[in-house]
Specification:
- The chain is α/β, with parallel strands linked by helices.
- Helices cover about 30% and strands about 25% of the residues.
- It is built from 13 helices and 24 strands.
- Strand 10, helix 6 and strand 11 form a beta-alpha-beta unit.
- The longest helix has 13 residues.
- The protein is elongated, with a radius of gyration of 21 Å.
- The termini are close together.
- The mean pLDDT is about 95.
- Bound molecules: ligand EPZ.
- The site of ligand EPZ has 25 residues, from helix 1, helix 5, helix 6 and helix 12.
């Protein structure tokens, strides 16, 4: 096991390049099951989750070759239609293979993903959508068994806006017979990018990037090359890190249009920002003003930055409230932040942060990907040394995080430990 040893109190200053989006690549990779052939996915981040997805589709007969940031997928031979529990339990996005498999091959056996560190993660919308397209679904032994002679286009409304369910049902609809109308579809940039890739593959999709998608099924699709969009959550995390240390940062390789609400909220706290075509400069000279945050679906504030924002508001001179409307119990980071000296109360799906408390280094434990990020941010400003355990969580979603932070003035050491 590895841990991070972080020396607090160092000002961040410098330039970083943002990696490809974890959730972007994880949406594009299963699309390779829809059409046999070679795919080159450029700007793919070197992350544990990408390796987990690669191992999963490789277990189905797909060949994956990862050179630098180019992932080459050869999906000419699919020999298995099963996503075993050993893969799916590690990463919920494994469930995205269900739609492509049942749509192209008429069968799939995919383990239910179960919950995650912060609570239940249902897949009812994935299953209802596929059933509406004519898939026969039964659940046995923790697995979803799906069968269909041929999926038939239908109308389906997502009662809750769901990134994963939109991706799964959308991919299935591209090869269904007839027209599918999806309403209240997710419009997160990672899903829009998937729609754009599917259109390049020959899919007929009207309404790309909107909540209403009309998909005319086709008989076959074709392999393509695609470039993963930059990681907007990674970008937001580093902007918050720089702001917390009263530092300055230039982030390159971003799509500013994916981050307007993050820029606006950071500006409300007192940050100076200059936004350019594919980069942003942030400078922060003072402690942040307390600014409340309420997460929502895109283009609102992503739930994936609420833990990092909570860490930031620990420095504010006053009380702020962070509310998560997407995941009501995504607060596993709070007890660990309290160990650093924070004063935070969780009431239902909101964290009430009494800022301005003295933060001192401690040993803290990661519980999930974004909780780990918030602990690292807090350790950057806590007095003295902190240790972050179980950093395999952070390795799922932040490429070379210690190298990137150390390059702009942090002191983060990755150390082997027997502590788990
Ligand atoms: C994606 O998860 C992301 N993961 C998550 O990022 C992100 O937090 C989430 O979207 C919300 O933006 C990937 O893209 C791999 P949802 P997903 O389906 O698709 C409910 C990270 O840190 N729901 O959009 O699983 C669900 O409980 C990860 O990078 C149902 O009720 O999320 C939640 O309240 C964590 N039934 C809401 O919808 C369903 O069938 C949104 O979930 C599906 C979802």
């Amino acid at each position: 096991m590895d841990k991070f040893v972080i020396e607090g109190g160092r000002r961040l200053s410098g330039k970083l390049s943002v990696s490809g989006a974890k959730n972007g690549s994880l949406a594009l990779m299963p699309a390779s099951l829809l059409a046999p052939g070679f795919y080159h996915l450029y700007n793919t981040p070197n992350l544990n989750d990408i390796w987990t997805m690669s191992r999963l589709i490789s277990s189905m007969g797909v060949n994956c070759d990862f050179e630098g940031s180019t992932l080459t997928i050869d999906s000419r031979e699919i020999t298995s239609f099963e996503a075993p529990y050993e893969h799916v339990k590690k990463m919920r996005a494994s469930f995205y293979v269900l739609g492509p498999l049942v749509s192209r091959f008429g069968k799939a056996r995919v383990s239910l993903p179960g919950g995650c560190a912060w609570g239940p993660r249902p897949v009812d919308l994935h299953l209802k959508g596929l059933e509406k397209l004519g898939a026969e679904i039964n659940i046995e032994g923790g697995y979803v068994n799906a069968q269909a002679k041929k999926l038939i286009g239908a109308n389906f409304h997502f009662d809750i806006s769901s990134v994963g369910a939109t991706g799964n049902v959308l991919m299935a609809a591209t090869l269904a017979k007839g027209t599918t109308l999806l309403t209240n579809a997710a419009i997160e940039p990672e899903i829009t990018a998937l729609e754009e890739m599917l259109v390049k593959m020959g899919a007929k999709i009207n309404g790309v990037g909107t909540t209403t998608l009309e998909i005319e099924g086709v008989d076959e699709l074709f392999p393509v090359d695609e470039t993963t969009i930059p990681d907007r959550i990674e970008a937001a995390t580093y902007l918050i890190a720089a702001a917390m240390t009263k530092g300055e940062i230039t982030l390159e390789n971003i799509i500013p249009a994916h981050l307007p609400v993050v820029f606006s909220k950071l500006g409300e706290t007192g940050c100076q920002l200059q936004v350019y075509k594919d980069s942003v400069y942030l400078k922060m000279d003072d402690l942040p003003k307390p600014v409340d945050l309420v997460t929502s679906v895109y283009p609102g504030i992503p739930t994936d930055i609420q833990a990092q924002w909570t860490a930031y508001m620990m420095l504010a001179d006053g009380v702020s409230k962070v509310t998560d409307t997407i995941y009501h119990d995504r607060f596993m980071h709070i007890p660990e932040l309290l160990r650093l000296g924070a004063d935070i109360n969780v009431i239902e799906n909101a964290a009430i942060i009494q800022g301005g408390k003295k933060l001192t280094g401690a040993v803290v434990m990661s519980s999930d990907l974004r909780a780990s990020a918030s602990l690292i941010l807090a350790a950057l400003v806590a007095e003295g040394e902190s240790e972050i355990l179980r950093i395999y969580h952070i390795d799922r979603g932040y490429e070379n995080i210690e190298d990137k932070l150390n390059a702009i003035g942090a002191s983060v050491k990755r150390v082997k430990t027997d502590l788990i």
